[in-house]
Amino acid sequence: MIKAIIIDDEPAMQAVNSRLLSENFPEIHLAGSANSIETGIQLIKTENPDLVLLDIELSDGSGFQLLQKLQPYTFKVVFITGFDSFGIKAIKFSALDYILKPVNETEFQQAIRRAVLLIEQNESAQPQLDVLMESLKQGVQSKKLVLRTYEALHIIDIADICFCKSDNSYTTFYFEDNETILVSKGLKEYEFLLANHGFFRPHQSYLVNLNHVKKVDKSDGGFIIMKNKKEIPVSMRQMKNLVGLLDQL
Description:
The chain is α/β, with parallel strands linked by helices. The protein has eight helices and 17 strands.
């Protein structure tokens, strides 16, 4: 049986997450709850859980600080958070799971189900945690991004991404060596993450790394020629913005 604990400084949130665990995951045993970094660390050391539901904002600090104090560790983490853009952005760079407050039951089930799968597969989350800690130290100017596919976790250098292409709710990443990685997240998610890393959205279906642009051709409505010779369309509305950004490089 999988052993879990909840670390959250709101009693009501502890109760909600406890109820959702018991109703949806009978194979998970809730071994206890804590409400701070100090009591959370004590509980983890006592119970040695497989899964920790961890609030980012605790009464005596952050859930990230708790993790730093416990490294290295083997349990899986699902973060619980309000709309904290800094914390969420760092988590998204690392492709770790999180649950937003107020808790949506479907999203809760999806996050816990993924965590259970990783526990059953005995898959290490250390590469993701390394990217998370790097993102936090760099103020979310992380140099790496974790892409999670069905088959694997890909830890990539952001500078190596040439461009991303949207396919409805999926995004394909393209690299210099013509390697591609398809992930089941929309392009808007990555536009948000990569906005401060030299990426630009010239067209609704594309997100481009400006450092990989070779030429901007203004004929036939306008398009970008990448260093790998791929051609990317540019909308009329975005052409002026694109030229202005390239002038600043």
